[in-house]
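Late entry, evening session. Most of the bench is empty. Finally got around to the prediction I had been postponing all week. Sequence below, unchanged from the version circulated by S.P.
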Amino acid sequence: MEEVKEVKKKGFALLTPERRREISRSGGKAAHAAGTGHHFTSETAKIAGRMGGMAIARKRREGTVGMPKGSDSGDEEKSNP
């Protein structure tokens, strides 16, 4: 039987969802106040959608849709120990 390690939370995972939301909100407000916050326009949204569509089309052609990043495409025979 395989042992399951207990994962200990670190950093933001330790915070309550409300506290994480507060921190995120204050960062967003600061970025917009400094003029560095991102504003989506219909043009930037269109470009982002096209890029995402191109990425998924490439993954479908390669047969890697739904595979975790860094894993091989599964073409090779896997050996069972």
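Two things to note before I forget:
The chain is about 50% helix and 0% strand.
The helical segments are 17-34, 42-62.
Will write this up properly tomorrow.
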